[in-house]
Specification:
The protein folds into two domains: about 120 residues, Alpha-Beta Complex (Aspartate Aminotransferase, domain 1); about 220 residues, Aspartate Aminotransferase, domain 2 (3-Layer(aba) Sandwich). About 40% of the residues lie in helices and about 15% in strands. It is built from 14 helices and twelve strands. The longest helix is centred in the C-terminal third of the chain and has 22 residues. The radius of gyration is 21 Å and the shape is globular. The mean pLDDT is about 95. It binds pyridoxal-5'-phosphate.
């Protein structure tokens, strides 16, 4: 079966976060991480059927959705998840904020590694907990932890696959992190929202909680169908918490604060996990082709620092050698909206979202080339 990653979709004036910001300008938005591609046909059909019923009352997670997620974890990551472990939540960001509220006292702190997705980088500040930022260039190994860890540090936040670097952690790395978490008695908050978008054909995602019983018992794994199937606007995610005490306190912290699950989100997620396999395989081929386009373009600009991401649909570009006073502003004036590296903790970089049609990416790269040439 073939899927359409070519036909452009008009997203201006559709209440889209990505497109609304620059609606009045001739700007291609290549920033926030959703894709300018339609969701799998099966997802669209399930949503159409729900919309046609015309009733949008309170939703409740159906057993079939739990089953679809459990089967997805088994088939994609060889991870055997039990139904009891699942706590459905409206998003991964609220999911890790909640973990901090539920499990850390006001004095207890956390460790993050930047550059990283902004809501992770600012998590300590937002939740008013002491936070340590260990650079991504210093991996979580015994010596680095010993040098940075403080007595009040209670939790590690792991972003795997990593946004914005596109790094995928190996089983060996995760086993080492799990051993250190055990030795230091740390909880692990694992944001694995990108777990399905591994672009190297031979790479497999390893959930942190799957490396050992002990890792499972001291962690929450946050997953969602949102990045994978381009349904981020549907507010559907899941926290997998194998430890019953941690799960109970997490649920307790949710009371009165977390909204009910979005009805259409439940419908979309179930269809995606049940029927999205072939579409996802085709999407990865498309994303790899876009990366090839980008790399071809980069041959003309060897001064831009870049490593092919192992996962995600974002590329992390070191543009410092271009000597632009404000790269994001310069590219915006040239008609391309990128994410500022500063927000992730590294001002030398910009982040380019390549989850779009090849044509849109080519146009954006042409515009970026013009900006670079004009500033030479
Ligand atoms: C690492 C990471 N976590 C979480 C999110 C967003 O999660 P949600 O929309 O489910 O809150 C993103 C979105 O880009 C992300 O990159």
């Amino acid at each position: 079966m073939s899927f359409d990653f070519i036909t452009p979709v008009e997203r201006k004036n559709t209440a889209s976060l990505k497109w609304q910001r620059y609606e009045q300008q001739d700007v291609l938005p290549m920033w926030v991480a959703d894709m300018d591609l339609t969701s799998p046909p099966a997802v669209q059909q399930a949503l159409k059927a729900a919309v046609e019923r015309g009733v949008f009352g309170y939703g409740e997670v159906p057993a079939k959705l739990n089953q679809a997620f459990i089967e997805w974890c088994a088939s994609q990551y060889a991870w055997l998840v039990e139904e009891d472990w699942l706590v459905w939540i409206p998003g991964v960001v609220p999911g890790f904020n909640l973990a901090v509220e539920a499990w850390l006292t006001a004095e207890q702190g956390l460790l993050v590694q930047s550059p990283v997705y902004t809501p992770i980088r600012v998590l300590g500040k937002l939740r008013q907990r002491p936070s340590i930022d260990l650079p991504m260039s210093e991996p979580i190994i015994k010596e680095n932890l010993a040098a940075h860890l403080k007595p009040e540090t209670q939790a590690l936040v792991l972003c795997n696959p990593q946004n914005p670097l596109g790094k995928v952690y190996s089983r060996v790395e995760l086993e080492e992190i799990a051993a250190l978490a055990e030795a230091e008695d740390l909880l692990v908050i694992a944001d694995e929202i990108w777990s399905d978008l591994l672009l190297e054909p031979d790479l497999r995602h390893v959930p942190f909680a799957s490396v050992s019983q002990a890792a499972a018992q001291r962690s929450v794994t946050l997953m969602a169908p949102s990045k994978t199937f381009n349904i981020a606007g549907m507010s559907c995610a899941v926290a997998v918490i194998p430890n019953p005490e941690l799960r109970a306190s997490y649920r307790e912290a949710m009371r009165g604060l977390m909204p009910d699950m979005n009805y259409l989100g439940l419908v979309a997620a179930q269809a995606a996990w049940q029927e999205g396999h072939a579409w996802l395989a085709a999407l990865k081929v498309h994303l790899n082709a876009n990366l090839d386009l980008l790399e071809n373009w980069l041959k003309d600009f060897p001064q831009i620092g870049y490593q092919r991401p192992q996962a995600t649909f974002v590329a992390w570009l070191d543009v410092s050698a271009l000597l632009l006073a404000d790269p994001v502003d310069a590219f915006l004036k040239g008609g391309v909206a990128l994410s500022a590296g500063e927000a992730y903790g590294q001002a030398s970089h910009v982040r380019l979202n390549f989850g779009c049609t090849a044509e849109q990416l080519k146009q954006a790269l042409q515009r970026m080339a013009a900006v670079i040439q004009a500033n030479n």
